[in-house]
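Lecture 7 notes: from sequence to structure.
We start with the chain below.
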Amino acid sequence: MQTSTATLTALHSPYALSVFTDRLARYRRMPVDAHGFIVSIPDAGRVLVRQEGRSLTVNVVAPDERTLAASMAAVVSELEQGFGRSDFRRSISIRWQRRDLVPVALR
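Predicted structure tokens for the same chain:
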């Protein structure tokens, strides 16, 4: 399994992250704990979203590199659709990191 984690940080307004979480409300979600939930995003599959202080982490898992890249692109597409392509990059910083361990909630 391949996994990657995105850290989303609001650049100006702390409410910018709520645009993303509000957009995800249109998909089926399952709470994991008080700070996180799993949501099924089309083309991304199951995604773990967690509130981490003043930022969000988004974990995607896929069986191979190609599918992982498609899942990551689907998450970015959700951000772009929520903000508009140009406003997204001015509102939120997104930093992807590869992980060796799949989060327990996504196993």
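Points to note: Residues 6 and 96 are 4 Å apart (CA to CA). The first helix runs from residue 16 to 24.
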